[in-house]
Design goal:
Elements lengths: L3 H7 L10 H9 L3 E2 L2 E2 L2 E2 L5 E6 L4 E7 L3 H20 L2 H17 L1 H12 L3 H29 L3 E3 L2 E5 L5 H15 L2 E5 L6 H13 L6 E3 L4 H9 L5 E5 L2 H11 L5 E5 L4 E5 L5 H12 L10 E7 H16 L19 H16 L3 E3 L15 E4 L6 H4 L6 E7 L2 H8 L7 E5 L3 H7 L7 E4 L18 E2 L4 H5 L3 E3 L6 H34 L30 E3 L2 E3 L6 E5 L5 E6 L3 H20 L2 H16 L2 H12 L3 H21 L6 E3 L5 E9 L2 E5 L7 H12 L3 E5 L6 H11 L8 E3 L4 H10 L5 E5 L2 H11 L5 E5 L8 H4 L2 H6 L1 E9 L3
Parallel strand pairs: 1-5, 7-8, 7-10, 8-9, 10-11, 12-13, 12-17, 13-16, 15-16, 17-18, 18-32, 27-28, 27-30, 28-29, 30-31
Antiparallel strand pairs: 2-3, 4-5, 6-20, 11-19, 14-15, 21-22, 23-24, 25-26, 26-32
Helix pairs in contact: 2-5, 4-6, 4-8, 5-6, 5-8, 6-7, 10-26, 11-12, 19-25, 20-22, 21-22, 22-23, 25-26
Bound molecules: 1,4-dihydronicotinamide adenine dinucleotide and magnesium ion.
Magnesium ion binds next to β4.
């Protein structure tokens, strides 16, 4: 007879299946056929498509393909519902969100099983991770609804919001989208992914039951075309998307110039970095969570294992042993580690990429056991001997496939980690807190986990750098995506009227001054009558006005030096009444490229300068600038003919603006989020990097400084295209920069044709953000071109009162200049 100890060693797992009875009965009661949920009611089923359980390949339901008419109806319903929902007292909205959280909890097991059936993910994960996090998101955002008026004063709901979500965390992605949107007072059209529509439909029922007003939440199912119809609908005010970078790019282009606000959460190829002092047994469990959680179908999956050379072999051996013991099987079996891949096309995609990895020469390893033959299963897979440039090291596989590479030094690990166009997440494993916190800021990613991985919470923002998209979901930073500034107190007509009034006053004052001067002059030149006129000596020198003036042609300002334009052309700058004021160099593509190179070279150092140092430099600029206030006022008046009073006002406001950002430089703090772990999530405001700034025409100096100052205060470097019509205040300004200790390359100024230069900036892959203030066509062009590398854009054609500090400076500008990185630091022995 065997002993207990022997049985323990040899015992096989028995199946521990979760029942699908309730979920099937829920489907059955609806005859397994669904319409859309629009305007608080279910539509008649239309053209249907099949919903598949990927673990069995069986059809479990059929849902309606959303037509353009369906999308139109949903948008109209959301529009109708908007005023009342937006107008509700924050507390009332908080109560609805709270009720949604309760509703999700009450039906949590049904939702968990339904999610497993539809997606193929294991019940262990849907039950313990997805659904609890869904409830957590609604609770957390019930709180933001409650606090909206005080914490987001001066901001309001954007309006009708279109949300398009992927299939990897169907209900969780729904919650990430819907909770903040509702909290802020928006109404919603949400399209679930075509592979996984069921839990969204169940959620619509829950929302209906708790009495969410008709039209506030609309769920329309369908494929890509349905999504595109939402994106292109003219009456949608914002699009929030999670999915592939490819589709993100399509959406960026489709919304260009439309004024729709956009947030994109896209793909990743996140590094999982292991240093030689890391606790390797923890690392192994971390890797399991990083790449085999949800079958690797996770946008922030740690899919690139970067290991310090000395421990690579040991780690790979341990990993293989662990992989040998992973269990793949029925998602409803509570004892499996991995369920099914979402759909046959995804399975094929994974197989294809693995094949490619093998044929490109990497070594592939899989455990000895076999996956279930029926359904979409794929085993955990490990690649070694991987070249950093190979397909499997660069492309998002979105499956249970890990690629391993090695490095020697921390510097090398950073270079390797950042060797991807993505920037979603990273994991850092080391016992040295010094090393971990030194590396975290150097990794280009929106989330960094220290000695941990795949931690999520509603209180901490989630989202990417670079081509992983922009915008955050969760926490205070996520709420900003669903609010907009309450329109400036001045309407355009008011602004124009104010301007006209000051111009008129100015003209009257000028006229009076001119009369006075003429009278004085007449008195002075009247010949004295008591002297003979012959005593007047003949002039011995030429009047100075007849000498050619010493040429002071402005240049471009690149890399801290005055630079002649590549082509050697200049443009005449003429005042509104036709007086030649000066000439400005005509920059071209090559000049912009040189400026970008200079800005890139300066970015690292300036980004790491302390806030104190940056502040000092901004104050120093202000000091040197104020010494020349008179010159600048004259120049502005000469160019724009705004009158000396207004010109002086602009100069004074510019000095104050520089002070504002000198002040902010060491005060734009991040946050420490209260996340439910033993530890903290540190939300750091990091510079974006190189920002291309196209300045507004109104207030040629103040407009420029209002944008450049926040950008450099937060550690970015800039390429500035000054006002097209009135560039000379900017070219004068470089002489101030030259004397103010601004490091070379931090501010580069290229004058020339505004839109031609802005396009070069927007297309340039080494520019990380573009700001465009100008006409709507320019906004469209900028947003279109920005899609090449998914630049952050801030582009607007709306009037702004730059002289008014409430409109022309502050946190809005600082937010545009930064992106939030959340660094999760668990602690304890
Ligand atoms: P996808 O990006 O095509 O689908 C995501 C959502 O966008 C779905 O709801 C889809 O219907 C919708 N959609 C598709 N085309 C659209 C369009 N032109 N306009 C508006 N909406 C559109 O992703 P897919 O094809 O399901 O997966 C392909 C690859 O994308 C995966 O292998 C993975 O690499 C990546 N992916 C990344 C995700 C992430 O969370 N970062 C999620 C899903 C996929
Ligand atoms: Mg499915």
């Amino acid at each position: 007879m065997s002993t207990v100890a022997e049985i323990f060693q040899t015992m096989e797992y028995g199946p521990a299946p979760e029942s699908d009875k309730e979920a099937l009965s829920w489907l059955g009661k609806r005859e397994r056929v669904f319409g859309h949920y629009i305007g608080g009611a279910w539509t008649e089923p239309g053209q249907l498509f099949d919903v598949i359980n990927p673990a069995t390949s069986k059809t479990i339901a059929r849902v309606t393909e959303g037509s353009t008419a369906d999308v139109n109806a949903a948008v109209a319903a959301a529009r109708r519902a908007l005023p009342a929902w937006k107008g509700l007292a924050p507390h009332a909205r908080a109560r609805f969100l709270y009720a949604l959280a309760r509703g999700v909890q009450k039906h949590s097991r049904l939702l968990a099983v339904l999610e497993s059936l539809d997606n193929g993910k294991s019940i262990r994960e849907t039950r313990d991770i997805d659904i609890p996090l869904v409830a957590r998101h609604f609770y957390h955002h019930a709180g933001w609804a409650q606090l909206l008026d005080s914490e987001f004063a001066g901001y309001e709901a954007i309006g009708v919001v279109g949300q398009i979500i992927p299939w990897n965390f169907p209900l969780l992605m729904l919650a990430w989208k819907i909770a903040p949107a509702l909290a802020a007072g928006n109404t919603i059209i949400l399209k679930p992914a075509e592979f996984t529509p069921l839990t969204a439909l169940c959620f619509a029922e829950i929302a209906h039951e708790i009495g969410i007003p008709a039209g506030v939440i609309n769920i329309v199912n369908g494929h890509g075309e349905t999504g595109a119809a939402i994106v292109e609908h003219p009456d949608v005010d914002k699009i929030a998307f999670t999915g592939s970078t490819e589709v993100g790019r399509i959406i960026r282009r489709a919304t260009a110039g439309s004024g729709k606000k956009l947030s994109l959460e896209l793909g990743g190829k996140s590094p999982f970095i292991v240093y030689d002092d890391a606790d390797l047994d923890s690392v192994v469990e971390g890797v399991v969570d990083a790449i085999w959680f949800n079958q690797g179908q996770v946008c922030c999956a740690g899919s690139r294992l970067l290991v310090q050379e000395g421990v690579a072999e040991r780690l790979v051996t341990k990993l293989r042993a662990r992989m040998e013991r992973l269990r793949v099987g029925s998602p409803l079996d509570k004892a499996v580690d991995m369920g099914a891949i979402v759909a046959p096309v995804q399975l094929e995609r994974i197989r294809g990429l693995v094949q490619q990895g093998v044929s490109e020469g990497a070594s592939m390893w899989q455990p000895s056991w076999a996956c279930p033959a029926e359904g979409c299963f794929y085993p955990p897979t490990l690649f070694t001997d991987v070249q950093p440039s190979s397909t499997i090291a660069q492309v998002e596989i979105f499956g249970p496939v890990l690629v391993t590479m090695t490095f020697r030094t921390p510097e090398e690990s950073v270079a390797l980690a950042n060797n991807t166009p993505y920037g979603l997440a990273a994991s850092i494993w080391t016992e040295s807190i010094n090393l971990a916190l030194d590396i975290a800021p150097k990794i280009k990613a929106g989330v960094v986990w220290v000695n941990s991985t795949n931690l999520f919470d509603a209180a901490a923002g989630f989202g990417g750098y670079r081509e992983s998209g922009f915008g955050r979901e969760g926490g205070r930073e996520g709420m900003w995506e669903y609010v907009k500034r309450v329109e400036s107190r001045h309407s355009k007509a008011e602004l124009l009227a104010r301007r006209a009034a000051t111009i008129e006053e100015e003209a009257t004052a000028k006229e009076a001054a001119a009369k006075e001067a003429a009278a004085k002059e007449a008195a002075a030149t009247r010949p004295p009558t008591h002297l003979p006129s012959t005593l007047h000596p003949p002039p011995s020198t030429l009047p100075s006005s007849a000498l050619p003036a010493i040429d002071r042609t402005p240049k471009l300002f690149i890399g801290g030096k005055q630079a002649r334009p590549d082509q050697g052309y200049t443009r005449r700058i003429v005042s509104p009444s036709g007086v030649l004021v000066g000439e400005a160099p005509e920059g071209n593509r090559k000049d912009i490229r040189n400026a970008v190179e200079a800005a890139q070279a300066a970015a690292k150092g300036w980004g790491r300068a302390t806030g104190h140092n940056r502040g000092q430099i901004l104050y120093y600029i202000a000091e040197n600038f104020s010494a020349r206030a008179q010159d600048f006022a004259e120049r502005i008046d000469a160019m724009t003919e705004c009158g000396t009073r207004r010109a002086k006002q602009e100069v004074e406001a510019s000095i104050s603006r520089l002070f504002t950002y000198g002040a902010w430089a060491d005060k734009y703090d991040g946050a420490v989020h209260s996340v439910p772990i033993r530890g903290v999530a540190i939300a750091m405001n990091e510079p974006i990097g190189v920002i291309g700034i196209t300045c507004p025409d109104e207030h040629p100096l103040l407009g420029m400084l209002s944008l450049v100052a926040p950008a450099i205060a937060t550690g970015n470097t800039t390429i500035v295209i000054p006002s097209h019509a009135f560039p000379l205040a900017a070219t004068d300004f470089y002489s101030v920069l030259e004397t103010s200790d601004v490091p070379a390359g931090v501010v580069n100024i290229v004058t020339g044709d505004k839109d031609t230069l802005a396009k070069v900036l927007a297309e340039h892959d080494d520019v990380e953000a573009v700001w465009y203030f100008g006409a709507r066509d320019g906004v469209r062009m900028t947003e279109l071109a920005s899609a090449s590398n998914m630049k952050r854009t801030w582009a607007t054609w709306h009037e702004r009162d730059w002289l008014d500090a409430k409109d022309g400076e502050g946190r809005e500008f600082l937010r545009a200049a930064t992106q939030v990185k959340n660094v999760w630091v668990p602690y304890g022995e």
